[in-house]
Amino acid sequence: MPSNNNDDVMTLEELAVYLKIPKSTIYKLVQEARIPGQKLGKQWRFGKQAIDRWLEQQTPSNEVK
Q: How does pLDDT run along the chain (65 residues), one tens digit per residue?
């Protein structure tokens, strides 16, 4: 059964803090479909588990610059 924990979904601002990168970098990554996220209306939302999986899949050749 899925968790109803609000920490499972992050806003763009929360993701920037979580990844310790600027919001502008996240905007670029989502526009290039390089990071998992969903746009709801005018706002982006990111699943923490999807982001954690994405981080694990990154290799030195795929690192965010």
A: 455 556 799 999 999 999 999 999 999 999 999 999 999 999 999 999 999 999 999 876 655 55
pLDDT for 22 equals: 97
**Which domains, and CATH codes, for the chain?**
7-60 (1.10.10)
Amino acid identity of residue 50, one-letter, is A
Question: Which residues make Cβ contacts (< 8 Å) with residue 45, sequence separation at least 6?
Answer: 9, 10, 11, 37, 38, 39
Give strand ranges (E) for the chain.
9-11, 38-40, 43-47
What DSSP letter does each residue of 12-30 carry, written as one string? HHHHHHHHTS-HHHHHHHH
